[in-house]
Amino acid sequence: MKRRVAPVRVEAAVHPVVVLAAVAAGAGLLTWFAAGRSKPLGHAAGGRSYSPRGREVTASAAQRLNHASTMLAASVLFDSGLEHYRGQFFNRAMYTPIVVSSVILAASLHGAGDTDPGSSRVRHGVQALAGLTGLIGFGFHAYNVGKREGGYSFQNLFYSAPIGAPMALTLAGVLGVIAERVRDADPDEPRLGGLPAGRSLAVATAGMLAGTTLEAGLLHFRGAFQNPAMFVPVTLPPLAAALLVRAATKPEGASQSGAKWGMWAVSAMGVGGVAFHGYGVARMMGGWSNWRQNLIDGPPLPAPPSFSGVALGGLAALELIERSRFRF
Amino acid sequence: MRPRLDLYPGYDVLAKRDGPSWNAKTREVLEERLAIGPETRRFFDEAEWSTMKSLAERIVPQPADRGDPVPVAALVDHKLATDTRDGYRNAEMPGEREAWRLGLRALDAEARARFGARFHELGAWAQDELLKLAEKGDLTGAVWEGMPSKLFFHQRVLADVVKAYYAHPTAWNEIGWGGPASPRGYVRMDFDRRDPWEAAEAKPGREDEAYQENLRVGR
Amino acid sequence: MRIPGLGNAADNPKHATPGDDPEHHPRARDGRAPNVMRIGEWVPMRQHRDEEEVDFAIVGTGAGGGTLACRLAEGGVSVVAFDAGPYFRPLEDFASDESHQSKLYWTDERIVDGENPLQMGSNNSGKAVGGSTVHYAMVALRFRPEWFKTRTLMGYGADWPLDWREMWRYYDQVEDDLKISGPVSYPWGPHRRRYHRRAHEINAAAKVLARGAEAMGINWTPTPLATVSAPHGDAPPCVYRGFCTLGCSTNAKQSVLVSYLPRALKAGAEIRDLAMVGRIETRNGRATGVHYFREGKWRFQRAKNVVVAGYAIETPRLLLNSANQEFPDGLANSSGLVGKNLMVQGNQAVWGVFDEEIRSYKGPPSLAISEHWNYDDKGHGPFVKDFFGGYSYMSQGPLPQLWANTQASAHGLWGEALVSEMQRYNHVAGLKVVSEYMPQERNRVTLADVKDQYGLPVARITYSWCDNDKALNRHALKFMREALSAAGGREVWDQGDDTCHLNGTARMGSGPRTSVVDADCRSWDIPNLYVCDGSVFPTVGGVNPSLTIQAVALRTADRILARRR
What are the boundaries of the region Disordered (chain B) (predicted)? Predict the structure, then answer.
């Protein structure tokens, strides 16, 4: 038996994770350029002419929806990156959400800077693709949970592929697609799939908040709600969702300040959640100096902003219902 | 019997010494152990020492080309010198220190009686023959002073020598154990998973991959 | 940064305290005791003079004594708890090293004999403040209700003078105190409250158990463990370092050292480390205090009540060593049962090699369990039960020294055969049983002629299996062999000789002729002398005993306090 000893050669190999990051960034850049140049408000071509106020509202709502999908896409990018790195990309399909969420992140950022009321076909396509990828991922994760020892038990829901996580990608895709649809809609009477855009979007985002709450609830139950703050993401979002549903029943043009504050509260919670999760990482053994373990084993830093993403979608819905552009 | 392999090429658990896998106490303890050289001897006398060294080589043989072999005999000597005990002894056995002295003397005497040479002067085959007799309890000469050679072999020789060898980082490298782990433990616990700070096993034909991975465990 | 009140446990033990040697100099003195959750820090401790007659002198600070000390102190009585071992701060004193951590074991001399001499030390005896819980495997299981009445209901052993429903309430309390991490619903036995932490993620070794159980058509579950899966106060969640049975250096493990004892100190209890109690003094049929050796000399602490909680070897040894003119056969021994009915539990294992990498050194050793054979009294086919009692079995995670020693002692390997077999370490998984052995009077603790470093006669431990024990061993090994093979294990072999845990030797019962203590753990002979540890078990059941010892300790505390009111 001969043991190899002492590393003599200089390592030239690039870490696979670096390659992956480069691929994801490249795909994002490509999407950005493919989506074309943003056009500033007022230079809309196409000969359509609507009342400026309506156009302002739909454009603002569309941008807000792109902010929403940006937030969600970024959350998915980092969360799936972290979780799939933990899973050592054991299945090659695990690279997919990283590339796809980079692409949708680029598309959403692009849209976020685009004040033009018209849609972009590339963005539209990318968002739809992402939505579909999320659904497929959901199927994969559900299959993965079921085949584990113990099947669909709490144990596997806690620790095997998180069943709800890929849906965040679907949410990003759906909100992105809606952004494009809103851009294309009649600004005076925007409709989605034949329904009034604001109301249907409000109900949809309320549903999304409920879904995200379920996911947070499951994982915080895994953490035994050991810190009282862990109850916030399972109580605040459902309240806000209820406000959204109520908003959808109000007459058009009525003030929506209650629901609006609700959405801002959930958005803030999503961002504040990162800080709480950061504190959680510090409470793990070795704290931040043991980051290679604790970033993965501790509470996931990138997860909470998905709440913010959905809440921004809710704000867009409120804008469409109230038919006025919110300054904040 | 399976051949001994270089199953974890390039893996050195000591590469993690200054990382988050080792706490201060662990570094202190291992430093003390690694300071024990192959000739560090406080407990055994000279005659016992040569028998002890040959005995250790039969129980946990080491590759001839290993530059820095595990000082197994010295580690056993250290255990006895510091009087670190198991916490029990069979009623037929004397205390640990006494059992070792008696047993080594008896082995040497049995070697002379059966092969006409001291234990450490015998070849591996003859040494193993003697040890197999002890393992079965068939060494019963008066030199054993009533101590059953079987109990000596199982409870003292095997237990102390084997534990001494596997207390050493070189042995940990050989079996691909992760080594000390605190404050950092492990993340990936499923089948066929390893953390980047664990030993990578060489799969046939992919030894270089494992070698590369193993150079990175200390990062 | 440490935020007060929020319990920042992210202490990184990079810097140990210099010049502080807990193994040779007591730490609990000068009005303070170590803060076990912090490096180099202290907490205030109330102290008593030897001449001061304290309400309770407790000998031992493990699962029984430590838990009892906490509840008694919280009940407002004055308590001094003695431990022969050191007072460790895990963050700074525990190394990740098998050899070094043997400092947690009771390694003073003991003599073993009988047909199946026991192995002592590492796997069943602790010598540290916190007792064996400092190095136990944290498996926190409840007795099956019927086990409290095995004689009446199942036809073997002896009845406990306790009611299972009352015990169920105390189990609830211990599980809450220790924040046991367990499955959302437990597959066996009557309903129990949900565990306070979720079960841990299971490792590959545990998944082997799960696969085997599913193939054999029986239930399995993630094991309820006394190590937190989410933060609790100053304890960070488990990092799966796998050194649990060598002391937890992160404090995730809820040993008595980090759970009940800090509470005890806060409530005003005094703990004396490196204090070996050698004799209990009596006068006019009552205990008056304890003689103990600390800081180089023998001292005498006066006490109104004495509790012995030294675990099933040291407890009878102390009672027997305390023999005097009044009680020539040893204290509390009018029944002659002190030291008798020593019970261990079977700890046989089957091991096999797997194609996949298992790396069972990661995570707590026993992450999955099946209690099927504790609750199935008949069995079927090749697994018909032809014996009394039951067993549970768990996944395993031996570290290299233990594994090599197992290969050498139980598999008979040495030389090239050993070192090459050891290279399959990362591909090995095993199943290990905790089984119920019968109480037998011939299994006992007596005093030997040999003396230890304190000049006290050491314990002689005599142990032999009865036919029922052997039949149980056969059944368990056969079942586990099939389960391990069904899970994909190859070259499966038996480790047939191991045992674990210590119980009996001062059993509780309903009369002074058939038992040593009553249901309240009070000795029949001496009204102010108690025994509170595994020694009081009339039967052991097929689960690890620590949770039951602690539940009994909580009950004992309640009973003592109720009597004082």
Answer: 198-219
